[in-house]
Structures are given as structure tokens and as C-alpha cells.
Amino acid sequence: MKPKLENYKLILRLLTLKILIMITCISSFGQANKLESDYMKMIEYATKAPSGHNTQPWKFIINEKSIEIHPDLSKSLPVVDADYRELYISLGCAAENLNIAAAEFGYSAMFCVRKVSDDYSWIYVSFEEVETKKD
């Protein structure tokens, strides 16, 4: 018996809700609605990045003009990825998707890797709105 389409829709809604719950949002800035909306949409695209065994090992934090991408070490795979290599490659894939989405939403993105220790780094992404040329 084939699963019903409604089951897939429910699973998609639950996954979207899970993503939104994982996102810490600090919205105390001027254009809160537009920026927050754009950032949430960009993060949605970032979460579609490939990851080792589809673990999606990332957490996003929204700030005034930036998004932080942190590793979720609770989703690490110590047997096959003891040194977190694939986990950090997955963060890079999410960062690239975020970069592509930012361009589509009219932002330029600058990336900086912040190393906290030998085992923990995260990605800081700052944004500037780009003026669109009118022909």
C-alpha cells in the first residue's frame, strides 16, 4: 500500500516546524519584518544543503545584519566522522546555499569562519542589501 500524499505533507510541515524551532531569532532591528522574513527564507534554502547521512548538523542564529551557522554536535556521527570533517563540510554546503539565496533576495554576503577551539568552529555571515539596477 502506497503512503498517502497527506502523510508527506504532514512530514514536511513537521520538518519545517522543527527548523523554525531550531532557529534563534533576535528581531530588535529597524526593518524587522522584511529582514526577518528574508533571513528566514534564506535559512530555509540553506537547510536544503546536503549533509552526511542527511543529519542536517547545523543551528542558525539570526542577528541584526548577520546569520550565524553553528555545528549541532549532538547530530555528529562519531563512528564514521570522529574528527567532524564531514560535519563541517555540511556546514560549508549550508553556507553556500545561504550565499546563493542571499543573492536572489538582493543581498551580498561576507563569510568568516570563527574558530573557538580545535574541535569547534562556526560561520559568521554578514549581509548588505545590494541596489538593483533598473534598465
**Which stretches are poorly predicted, pLDDT < 50 over at least 5 residues?**
24-30
Strand content: 25-35%
Question: From the alpha-carbon coordinates, what is the Rg to the nearest angstrom?
Answer: 16 Å
Strand count, sense and barrel status of the largest sheet are: 5 strands, mixed
Say how many strands there are.
5
Please bin the fraction of helical residues.
Answer: 25-40%
- Order of neighbouring strands in the sheet with most strands: 1-2-3-5-4
Number of helices, counting only DSSP H or I runs of 4 residues or more: 3
Q: Which whole number gives the mean pLDDT? A: 84
Basic shape: flat
Query: What is the rounded distance between the termini?
Result: 55 Å
Structural class of the secondary elements?
A: alpha+beta
Order of helices and strands: HEHEEHEE
Overall description:
The relative contact order is 0.14. Helix content is 39%, strand content 25%. Strands 1-2-3-5-4 form a five-stranded mixed β-sheet, with helices on one face. Residues 24-30 have low confidence and may be disordered. By secondary structure, the protein is of the alpha+beta class. The longest helix is centred in the last third of the chain and has 20 residues, at 85-104.
Give me the secondary-structure topology:
Blueprint: H1 5-22, E1 24-25, H2 32-46, E2 58-62, E3 66-71, H3 85-104, E4 107-117, E5 120-129
Parallel strand pairs: 1-2
Antiparallel strand pairs: 2-3, 3-5, 4-5
